[in-house]
Amino acid sequence: MARKDREGEKTVASNRKARHDYAILETFEAGVALTGDEVKSLRGGRASLAEAFARVRDGEVWLEGMHIPPYEQGDKKSHLPLRPRKLLLHRQEISKLADAQQQDRLALVPLRVYFTHGLAKVELALARGRRAHEKRQAIAERVHEREMRQELGRRR
Q1: Rounded CA separation 152/138 (Å)
Q2: Domains of the chain from N-terminus onward
Q3: Which of 2, 93, 96, 113 is the most buried (most CB within 10 A)?
Q4: Are 13 and 121 in contact, with CB atoms under 8 Å apart?
């Protein structure tokens, strides 16, 4: 089910594994071009970002691999669940993403899909992939931080 976040925001789906697999460098908020059935399905809290990624093609940013199941009360000829969806960004942001993707070999990873003030948005991250040893090191740091907080809490 969808989760309430900040004032006027409702998260539909999040990609929790992305924060483990990638080092997030910068985030962007992008609108999504959707059909009516897709919006209804998203409002019901049904979406998956597990295999999703974004790519810049012909001066436009496309979100691929995001699964939005068909709306059950909708038309029989509804949308394809895995079709590429256009992301709406400013021209300067698109050129910045394209440059970073080509020159720096960075990935465009969707972190979450949410509604803000009635509009569907995607939080898109410019990220660098982590290697296995970096992932283990990040987990060890989190465990260490948690133990430190617990010990400080006990002393108080």
Answers
A1: 21
A2: 3-130 (2.40.280.10)
A3: 113
A4: no
The first and second tokens of residue 69, run together, are: 């199941």
CA nearest neighbour of 38 among 29, 47, 50 = 47
CA-to-CA distance for 5 and 61, rounded, in angstroms?
26
C-alpha count within 13 angstroms, C-beta hemisphere, residue 35: 15
Report H helices in 44-131: 91-103
Residue 51: name the closest of 81, 94, 90 by CA.
81
- Strands, E assignment, 15-143: 22-32, 53-57, 60-64, 85-88, 107-116, 119-129
Query: Distance (Å, rounded) from C-alpha 89 to C-alpha 42?
Result: 20
Instruction: Pinpoint the alpha helices (H) of 28-127.
Output: 36-43, 91-103
User: CA-to-CA distance for 111 and 115, rounded, in angstroms?
Assistant: 14
Each residue's pLDDT tens digit, 51-70? 888 999 998 999 998 988 88
pTM (predicted TM-score): 0.76
Main-chain dihedrals φ then ψ at residue 127, nearest 5 degrees = -135, 155
